[in-house]
TrEMBL record:
Keywords: DNA-binding, Phosphoprotein, Transcription, Transcription regulation. Residues 127-223 bind DNA. The modification 4-aspartylphosphate is found at residue 53. This is Stage 0 sporulation protein A homolog. It comes from Ventrimonas faecis. May play the central regulatory role in sporulation. It may be an element of the effector pathway responsible for the activation of sporulation genes in response to nutritional stress. Spo0A may act in concert with spo0H (a sigma factor) to control the expression of some genes that are critical to the sporulation process. CDD domains: REC_OmpR, trans_reg_C. Residues 4-117 form the Response regulatory domain. Residues 127-223 form the OmpR/PhoB-type domain.
Length: 223
């Protein structure tokens, strides 16, 4: 299958064992020894899955997951010594797909990883396009079209449009849009959303009529 898997683990010995095991199964592991390195690799490469340790110095796995989920739907499995239910719930809330507690069996971890990859690939094939009110998004490619003509959006504009389309006919507050598109740790003013919506409307032209401003509430995409 030759899946490309990012293994993020600060303990060199564990990282080596994981890489060796996945390599022996014919997969293509890529290593990262810390959270910052992981984010750089994810920004520059396409991965089929990420195995992510939580307890790491400088930037922990939860922060990495939060950052990744702003723009990327790659399957994430947390590798951690934490077994408390609240910790697991937080991981799922931030967008993790699964949670494996150390010590774990390599064969089980491999099976979970491959199952997630297969499920994600089926999901992409089945739901890679969104169409609302003449606007089409190709989610994996990150492309937008109006009336069949491509519109070039920035990542933030694409994320905003995708969020509005996923929640069509529902009012989304500025705060909700910030959380989904900027991340939980965004510290800017919520009015930043207004600026991006304005630019998005300009690029969509006549098709932007479906994006309604709801006074003192936020925005709604009608479709």
């Amino acid at each position: 299958m030759n899946s490309k898997i990012l293994i993020v683990e600060d303990e060199a010995k564990i990282r080596e064992i994981l890489c060796d095991y996945f390599s022996s199964k014919g997969e293509l592991p890529v290593e990262a020894s810390n959270g910052m390195q992981a984010l750089e690799l994810i920004d520059e490469n396409e991965f089929d899955a990420v195995l992510l340790d939580i307890m790491m110095p400088e930037l922990d796995g939860l922060s990495v997951c939060r950052a990744v989920r702003r723009t990327n739907d790659v399957p994430i499995i947390f590798l951690t010594a934490l077994s408390d239910e609240e910790d697991k719930l937080l991981g799922y809330e931030l967008g993790a797909d699964d949670y494996v507690t150390k010590p774990f069996t390599m064969s089980v971890l491999y099976a979970k990883t491959m199952a997630l990859i297969k499920r994600n690939q089926r999901s992409v094939l089945a739901g890679d396009r969104m169409e609302v009110s003449g606007i089409t998004l190709e989610l994996t490619a990150g492309r937008a079209y109006t009336g069949g003509k491509e519109v070039f959006l920035t990542p933030k504009e694409f994320a905003l449009l995708r969020c509005l389309m996923q929640n069509k006919n529902l009012v989304m507050s500025r705060e909700q849009l910030l959380v989904k598109c900027w991340g939980y740790d965004y510290e800017g003013e919520s009015r930043a959303v207004d600026t991006h919506i304005k630019r998005l409307r300009e690029k969509l032209g006549d098709y932007a009529e479906c994006i309604k401003t709801v006074i003192k509430a936020g925005y709604r995409l009608e479709g």
